[in-house]
Every structure is written in structure tokens, then in C-alpha cells.
Design a protein that fits this description.
The complex is a heterodimer of chains A (about 475) and B (about 210).
Chain A: H1 5-12, E1 14-16, E2 23-26, E3 29-32, H2 38-47, E4 57-60, H3 77-93, E5 96-98, H4 108-114, E6 123-126, E7 140-143, H5 146-155, E8 157-160, E9 164-171, H6 180-191, E10 199-204, H7 206-209, H8 213-221, E11 230-232, H9 237-243, H10 252-262, E12 275-280, E13 287-289, E14 297-299, H11 313-326, E15 341-344, H12 352-362, E16 372-375, H13 380-388, H14 391-397, E17 401-402, E18 423-426, E19 441-444, H15 447-456, H16 462-466
Helix pairs in contact in A: 2-5, 6-8, 12-14, 12-15
Chain B: E1 6-9, E2 11-14, H1 21-24, E3 64-67, H2 79-87, E4 91-94, H3 99-108, E5 111-114, H4 117-129, E6 135-138, E7 143-146, E8 151-154, H5 159-167, H6 171-176, H7 179-189, E9 195-197, E10 203-205
Classes of the chains: A alpha/beta (about 475), B alpha/beta (about 210).
Chain lengths: ~475, ~210
């Protein structure tokens, strides 16, 4: 019987599936960071339990780390304590840990793929909802809470109810100027914040398979913004060539054997999905969010919507509340809205390709006066590569700040955050109230729109910069 | 985790949709390494607003939260559950919930009650008419009622979550009793990964790497 990619991975990882009970699912790779793990390690300690498979557990510091030079101590005592707790926990339980400043340290969803430890067909979990990122490799990857982190540490398994399957097919080629971020903002806009709830999404179609691995990661990353815990893309040559030569994969003939095996991680031709969504790529444009959830999306060339445009009274209320928080008037053209801060970074858009695209726009130009623009590479490896390519000099020359890696202003847990009332163009994934700092106003955009916006001082596309 | 069979308490309606986990517990609170004390951070962005419903004295001490659609969307932070429970909530009623939030709730004993939109609206109306009304959540019989108004609705919990609530069971202990099956799986069913972490900061090949 033909199976979807999700079903193939699921079937291979069933430890036990008693009738009427959740499945006990084996976990291949457990990624850990400082925020959602301290209470889990404490739980193990209290029960006298060990980490079952430290050889399949990898920890890094990302949410709290300052993006100042590494020699600067962590000023916030609460952050410092949490970072120290992870280090101590990893030592005690024998877990591999990349501390702040380590050559492999970075945002957990950036380092897994770049180290080649994220591989097709694997089950991957992390106490972080953007774990869906790793699904770009044809792996089943999803976010879990701290109780489940403890469960995986202790047993290397999770109790799971099988999700339903949804295919989201983006048909045809995306027009020039439309990036992976625009594709996923469009998908979230279509599905809404709850449309994917209960599903694992498989992204398909030419506009998806045309994407690089970085682009596919951007799309899978935001699956959770549509309510889906996981998003997947089938394995193809792009997947395999990305992984070739990375630290987690073998060399030579052994790699070819592995790559041949990975090619089975695609949905069979006649596999059935529980839900199917079609999106016409030719209709896509660059997008920006206007509100306080990631489904509140409008074309960059469009205007702030009016609450009266919605028939549903709850929707009208929600729109009114979002506009009040965002300090926006209906009908205002997005291009006329000035920004205070531009943030290029986060597990959505901080990889080398994102930085190359943004640098291309910024090259030879300058950030508008009064705008603060930060570039925060996703990892030390990304940072080093960008510096080898001279991207840091392009950004610095254009008046951007070039920072050390971490989650930074996406989540506002380190010193990088918005002040109340400040407006940002951000390449991150969530525009929730207060996400980037209390009272801060976040608009989600692609790296190229972020760079153009920094230069123009208002939401702008790269074309406008070149004019 | 907390055992729950019947919970009785007063309810408070927070009439908003898409209350995400960043609203439930702002990220500045996530730096703590403890599991307790998060109640002070609950709805941190809104708590200073005198018109916010949790600041309305007529709802003081409420232990059942009534919310709009998609409550708890967003991040995986279990801190959202800890904050709600630490503040004093034992059950959340809404038309729909974020998946990870729902899952996390089941690990802590926070009862998730999903009702139709119209039923949530009705319950909201009853509670607003009389905030002192007693609301009863019965996990055993899977129903929620306002006895004085003769209002009663059934809700659905998957049998495992219901059983866990009724017995206050710890998942890890249960899973560890299946250790033989995990051992079997590891030795037989599963292809080895191409790498291992050595615990000392390195990624080492587990097979096939020539260099």
C-alpha cells in the first residue's frame, strides 16, 4: 500500500503500538537548549534517572546568549544562571554541549542541519516549536514541552498520537523576487494560525522543490505558525548534495550507500493525504505581516486592512485589537510605514544564503538615518563563512550591526529587544504582542525585504533600493 | 502530576482569540530554572491594564479560564502551563487549542475542555451574568456544568489523557516499564546512525568514515 513520507518515517520508529493507546515512538536525535531543559534535568535528578542515549543528544546555548563580542560576560544574572545550568547538566549527564563561543554553537535549528546530524528519515525532537525546521530534510521533526524533554532524556522515546497528513502543493514556479519566506507567509495566510492543527504538512510542488535547503528550512520552520507541529519536504538531489561532506555524514562509498537509502524518503505516488491544499505559485508576491499573528499577512504592495472587511464579528474584534496594538490605521499603504529597527536573523532566516541575499541588497548603500539594523548569523559556522565571503564588510559598510550568533531579537530573551512602541521589520517567525520586547511592534518579512526596508527606512522591496 | 476527578470553581472569560503562549507567559520569564513561581508572570503584557478581566475583583479566585479560539498557539514552552496552574487555574475552556499546548497540559493535569463556539459563548454569557456561579468540571464523566443554570455540556478527552488525569500518572515511569521493548527496538529494528556524540564536545562517525 502506498504511504506518505510521514507514514514511512512513523512506521520505522514504532517501538510499541498497543491497541487504544498512544504509540511509543523512538527518537533518533534529541536537540536541547537552555530554556526548556533545566526543569527536565532536575526531574531526572530527583528520580535518580540517567540520560538513556547521550550519544543521540546534543545541546547548545542559543535563546539567552548575548550577541555582543564573546569576551563580554553575560550581564543578566538570570540568563547567566540558565546558561550555566545547561553546562552543569550536560557535564553531569554526559551530554555533548556547545557553549557560547564554541565553533559549533548557534541556534539549535541552524546547527543540526549544518553539522549534518539532521538526516532524512530520522525522528528529531527539541523543546522548541520551530523544530519543524528539520523536516526540510525529509525527517519527522517536532517541538515538545519540558515534560516530554524529560521523557526523551530518560527513555529516548515519546508517547505520540499519530497526526493526520496534509499536502500543501505550491504549483508552478515562484515569480522572480518571491522568496521562501514569502511562500511560507502565503501558506500561513491561507491556512490561518489553526489550519494545520492536528496535521503533519508535506510541502510539495515545483516552487518547493526549486528551493535550496535553506529555503526549504525557512518554509518548514513556520509550519507551527499554521498550527502544524511538523512540516516535511521529500528527499531529492538538493537534500543529498547539501549533506555531502558535513561532519555527521561518512565519506566516499559509505555516503553513497546512505544517500541511496535516503532516497526512499518520499511519498509514494498514490499515497493519500487526509487534506490537500493547492497554491498557485504564479500568484505569489513579497509579503509582510500587518498584525499580531503570522497569518495576518498582506502584499508588500498592499495596505493595512480594515476591520470592516471581515464578516465574522470575532475576526473584526481581533483585527481592531491587532491594529490598536500595532498603532496602524486601516488603508495605510505598507510602503508608507516607517520602521525603527530591522532584524535579520532567527531560525527562520539566519543561514548563509539569507545573509548573501540581504547583503546583495545592502551592498554599496546605507541604512536610513534613525534606523537600527542588526544582522545576527544563525551560528558561528554561518558567521565564519559569511566573513570569508566578505558579507560582514558589506553589512558594516552599509551601517548594519554585525553580531555574534543566537536567537537574539526573535524571542527577546537576550539584551536585543524592541522598546515599547518601536516598530521592526524582522526576518523571524512570530509577530505576537511583546514577542521582541514589551510593547514592540513586529512585522515579518524576508531577508531581502528586511535589507531594502533598512535602507529606505520604510517597508520596501529590493527593486526600490535599486531605483 | 496532579490528579483530577472533579473540579469545582468559578470561571473567568478572557474574550480574545489567538491567545498565544507569548501572551500567556512572556519570554522574559523563561529564563528561570525552577518549575514554580510563574503565576506572577501570567499574561504579563496585560496584567497592568486595570480593564484586563483578571483584574476585575468580581472574578477574583476564579480557577476555570474561558477563552476564544486557538488558545495556546505558538511556542512549546511548558512554562505557559506552569503559569496558568501556578496562578490557580485548573481547567481551560475554549473552542480550539494549540497542539503543543494541549499536549503539555495533559502532562501537568491542566484540564483542556474543547467546546463548540456557541457553547463557549453561552458559558461566557452565564458567567458574565453572575461571576459567582459555580462551574463543575467532571473528568470522570467528561462533562462541564453550571448546576444553578441547569447548563451542562459533554466534552471529549482521549482515553489516555483522561486516565492519566484520573490517576495522576507519570508517563516516564510507565514508559520505563516498557524498557525491554525499547532495548529490542534499538538492537534489531533500527539502522545505526552515521554519527554519535561523544559527550566531550565532538561528533564522531559511528561507521564508514574513512578519515
Amino acid at each position: 500500500m502506498d504511504r506518505t513520507l510521514f507514514e514511512k518515517i512513523w512506521d520505522e520508529h514504532v517501538v510499541e503500538s498497543p491497541v487504544g493507546e498512544p504509540t511509543l515512538l523512538y527518537i533518533d536525535l534529541h536537540l536541547v537548549h537552555e530554556v526548556t531543559s533545566p526543569q527536565a534535568f532536575e526531574g531526572l535528578r530527583l528520580e535518580g534517572r540517567k540520560v538513556r542515549r547521550p550519544d543521540r543528544t546534543l545541546a547548545t546555548a542559543d535563546h539567552n546568549v548575548p550577541t555582543d563580542p564573546i569576551s563580554t560576560p553575560v550581564a543578566d544574572p538570570v540568563s547567566r544562571r540558565q546558561l550555566e545550568a545547561l553546562e552543569v547538566n550536560c557535564q553531569e549527564f554526559g551530554v555533548t554541549f556547545f557553549a557560547r563561543g564554541h565553533e559549533n554553537q548557534g541556534i539549535v535549528h541552524v546547527i543540526g542541519p549544518e553539522l549534518g546530524v539532521t538526516q532524512p528519515g530520522m525522528t528529531i525532537v527539541c523543546g522548541d516549536s520551530h523544530t519543524s525546521t528539520h523536516g526540510a530534510f525529509g525527517s519527522l521533526a517536532f517541538g515538545i514541552g519540558t515534560s516530554e524533554v524529560e521523557h526523551v532524556l530518560a527513555t529516548q522515546t515519546l508517547l505520540q498520537q499519530k497526526a493526520k497528513t496534509m499536502s500543501v502543493t505550491v504549483q508552478g514556479a515562484a515569480p522572480a523576487g518571491v522568496t521562501a519566506k514569502d511562500i511560507v507567509l502565503a501558506i500561513v495566510g491561507v491556512l490561518g494560525t489553526g489550519g494545520g492543527a492536528g496535521y503533519v504538512i508535506e510541502y510539495r510542488g515545483k516552487a518547493i522543490t526549486d528551493l535550496s535547503m535553506e529555503g526549504r528550512m525557512t518554509v518548514c520552520n513556520m509550519s507551527i505558525e499554521a498550527g502544524a507541529r511538523a512540516g516535511l519536504v521529500a528527499v531529492d538531489d538538493t537534500t543529498i548534495e547539501y549533506l555531502r561532506g558535513r561532519p555527521g555524514v561518512p565519506d566516499g562509498a559509505a555516503f553513497e550507500v546512505l544517500a541511496d537509502h535516503w532516497r526512499c524518503y518520499v511519498s509514494d505516488a498514490a499515497a493519500n493525504f487526509d487534506a490537500e491544499v493547492m497554491i498557485d505559485a504564479s500568484q505569489l508576491v513579497p509579503y509582510v505581516t500587518w498584525g499580531t499573528n503570522p497569518a495576518q499577512v498582506v502584499a508588500l504592495s498592499g495596505a493595512v486592512p480594515s476591520p470592516n472587511a471581515y464578516d465574522d464579528p470575532d475576526e473584526r474584534d481581533a483585527t481592531r485589537r491587532s491594529l490598536a496594538y500595532m498603532g496602524l490605521e486601516p488603508g495605510t499603504r505598507m510602503r508608507d510605514i516607517p520602521v525603527d529597527v530591522v532584524f535579520i536573523g532567527s531560525c527562520t532566516n539566519s543561514r548563509i544564503e539569507d545573509l548573501r541575499d540581504a547583503a546583495e541588497v545592502a551592498k554599496g548603500r546605507h541604512v536610513a538615518s534613525g534606523v537600527r539594523a542588526l544582522v545576527v548569523p544563525g551560528s558561528h559556522r554561518v558567521k565564519r563563512q559569511a566573513e570569508e565571503e566578505g558579507l560582514d564588510q558589506i553589512f558594516l559598510g552599509a551601517g548594519f550591526e554585525w553580531r555574534e550568533p543566537g536567537c537574539s531579537m526573535c524571542v527577546g530573551m537576550n539584551p536585543d529587544h524592541l522598546a515599547a512602541g518601536q516598530r521592526s521589520a524582522s526576518t523571524s517567525n512570530r509577530n505576537f504582542e511583546g514577542r521582541q520586547g514589551r510593547g514592540g511592534r513586529t512585522h515579518l518579512v524576508s531577508p531581502v525585504v528586511a535589507a531594502a526596508t533598512a535602507i529606505k527606512g520604510h517597508f520596501a522591496s529590493p527593486d526600490e533600493v535599486h531605483e | 502530576m496532579k490528579q483530577v476527578r472533579i473540579h469545582e470553581g468559578r470561571a473567568v472569560p478572557i474574550e480574545r482569540s489567538d491567545v498565544d503562549t507569548d501572551q500567556i507567559i512572556p519570554s522574559e520569564w523563561l529564563k528561570r530554572v525552577e518549575r514554580t513561581g510563574f503565576g506572577r508572570g501570567l499574561f504579563g503584557e496585560w496584567r497592568d491594564d486595570p480593564s484586563f478581566v483578571l483584574n476585575d475583583p468580581s472574578y477574583a479566585g476564579a480557577s476555570i479560564l474561558i477563552a476564544g479560539p486557538r488558545f495556546g498557539t505558538g511556542s512549546s514552552r511548558e512554562h505557559a502551563i506552569w503559569a496558568l496552574m501556578d496562578y490557580g487555574f485548573s481547567a481551560i475552556v475554549a473552542p480550539s487549542f494549540g497542539d503543543i499546548f494541549r499536549n503539555n497540559s495533559s502532562k501537568q493535569g491542566l484540564v483542556i475542555i474543547q467546546l463548540a463556539d456557541a457553547d463557549v459563548d453561552e458559558l461566557t454569557r452565564l458567567v458574565k451574568q453572575n461571576p459567582a456561579r459555580l462551574v463543575v468540571v467532571d473528568v470522570d464523566h467528561l462533562c462541564i456544568e453550571v448546576p444553578e443554570d441547569g447548563w451542562r455540556r459533554k466534552f471529549v478527552l482521549d482515553p489516555i489523557t483522561r486516565g492519566r488525569l484520573l490517576n495522576g500518572l507519570d508517563d516516564i515511569g510507565l514508559t520505563m516499564s516498557h524498557e525491554a521493548a525499547i532495548n529490542r527496538y534499538e538492537s534489531a529494528s533500527h539502522a545505526p546512525l552515521s554519527y554519535v556524540f561523544d559527550g566531550k564536545g565532538s561528533i564522531s562517525p559511528s561507521y564508514g568514515k574513512s578519515s
